[in-house]
């Protein structure tokens, strides 16, 4: 734990303290990150502008507001609301400057670049332990059958089941230590991350101890379990179409070729092309999952033969017609 003296020592050095987990801090300020745009050294977190209504009389629908992960500076390109992260904390929570400093210090202060970003210090009350998973059980046969998943694949990546609500439990773990950070709970028309703001963009779903030649990246954890059920090793999920810099680094550490199997929809294809353009020059070989002739937009909706052939037919972009 950081003592109060240490906190004030840190603060003296930082005129513009930036939380270690900017997206998590935004969440705690009731600003939901709707999109992330990765730049060379940092990420822009896009959200609906919290000052828009007050400044323009209309809510922001775009989103027009962004916060930079490295500098902590925020800006609304539409209404001009802008400042340093501490200003945002003051405005949102109605705090004095000193209190806003203390609030940011409790989130963990950092001034290093994203690459060296330390893990967010976790408050004891929000720390999740393995005991939290004791409420859940192995997925039942009918649930497994409904998604063509094998019990073995579920067991190998720790997928559980919440029987009272009939929901999948998909653990989210520290990629370095395996420590449980939280989980995703997924049912019919239901989806939740627990705890709110769990830093899932800093890890992947899948067997994080795996290292090999070819990894497969999917959006949804259950699709990664499906791939594993089909005998495809090295299947990981990014928890969505946006794949963070940290997630790509984790993948690059684990494989020599990455098959990009993001969903075959507009968001998935845009993300895929962006990842290719950004990471190919950095030495990661990438192929695209072969959706040609397949109506399904993700691997989870394909039958076994289609899923196997989409994987076997993964191709370099220049071979694509
Ligand atoms: Zn605005």
Can you put this structure into words, describing what you see?
The protein is α+β, with helices and mostly antiparallel strands and 321 residues long. It has 2 domains: 113 residues, Zinc finger, CHC2-typedomain (DNA Primase, Chain A, Alpha-Beta Complex); 190 residues, 3-Layer(aba) Sandwich (Dna Topoisomerase Vi A Subunit, Chain: A, domain 2), CATH 3.40.1360.10. Helix content is 30%, strand content 19%. It contains 11 helices and 15 strands. The strands form 4 sheets. The protein has a 5-stranded antiparallel sheet with strand order 2-3-4-5-6, covered by helices on one side. A 4-stranded antiparallel sheet has the order 8-9-10-11, with no helix packed on it. Helix 4 crosses helix 5. The protein is globular and about 60 Å long. The N terminus is likely disordered.
Number of helices: 11
Helix content: 25-40%
Task: Report the order of strands and helices.
Answer: HEHEEHEEEHHEHHEEEEEHEHEHEH
* Uncertain regions spanning at least 5 consecutive residues: 1-5, 112-122
CATH topology of the largest domain: the name is: Dna Topoisomerase Vi A Subunit, Chain: A, domain 2
Instruction: Identify the bound ligands.
Output: zinc ion
Topology:
Layout: H1 4-13, E1 18-19, H2 22-28, E2 35-38, E3 43-47, H3 52-56, E4 65-68, E5 74-76, E6 82-83, H4 85-93, H5 97-106, E7 109-110, H6 141-146, H7 151-156, E8 160-162, E9 167-173, E10 180-187, E11 190-194, E12 214-218, H8 221-229, E13 235-237, H9 245-254, E14 257-260, H10 266-279, E15 285-288, H11 304-312
Parallel strand pairs: 12-13, 12-14, 14-15
Antiparallel strand pairs: 1-7, 2-3, 3-4, 4-5, 5-6, 8-9, 9-10, 10-11
Helix pairs in contact: 4-5
This protein binds zinc ion.
């Amino acid at each position: 734990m950081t003592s109060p003296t240490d906190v004030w020592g840190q603060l003296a050095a930082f005129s513009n303290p930036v939380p270690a987990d900017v997206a998590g801090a935004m969440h705690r300020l009731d600003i939901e990150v709707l999109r992330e745009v990765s730049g060379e050294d940092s990420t822009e977190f896009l959200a609906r502008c919290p000052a828009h209504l007050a400044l323009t009389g209309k809510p922001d629908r775009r989103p027009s507001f962004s916060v930079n992960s490295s500098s902590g500076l925020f800006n609304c390109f539409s209404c001009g609301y802008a400042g340093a992260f501490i200003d945002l904390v003051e405005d949102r929570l109605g705090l004095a400057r000193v209190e806003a400093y203390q609030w940011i210090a409790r989130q963990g202060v950092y001034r290093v670049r994203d690459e060296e970003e330390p893990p967010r210090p976790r408050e004891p009350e929000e720390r999740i332990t393995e005991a939290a998973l004791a409420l859940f059980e192995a997925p039942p046969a009918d649930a497994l059958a409904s998604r063509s998943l094998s019990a073995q694949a579920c067991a190998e990546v720790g997928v559980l089941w919440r029987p009272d609500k009939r929901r999948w439990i998909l653990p989210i773990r520290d990629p370095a230590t395996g420590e449980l950070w939280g989980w995703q709970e997924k049912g019919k028309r239901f989806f939740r991350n627990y705890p709110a703001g769990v830093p899932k963009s800093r890890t992947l779903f899948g067997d994080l101890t795996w290292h090999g030649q070819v990894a497969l990246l999917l959006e949804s954890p259950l699709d990664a379990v499906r791939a594993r059920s089909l005998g495809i090793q090295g299947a990981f999920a990014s928890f969505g179409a946006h794949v963070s810099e940290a997630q790509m680094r984790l993948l690059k550490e684990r494989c020599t070729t990455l098959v990009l199997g993001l969903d075959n929809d507009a968001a998935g294809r845009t993300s895929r092309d962006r990842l290719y353009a950004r990471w190919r020059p950095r030495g990661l070989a990438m192929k695209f999952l072969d959706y040609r002739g397949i109506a399904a937009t993700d691997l989870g909706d394909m039958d076994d033969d289609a899923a196997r052939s989409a994987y076997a037919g993964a191709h370099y972009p220049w071979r694509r017609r």
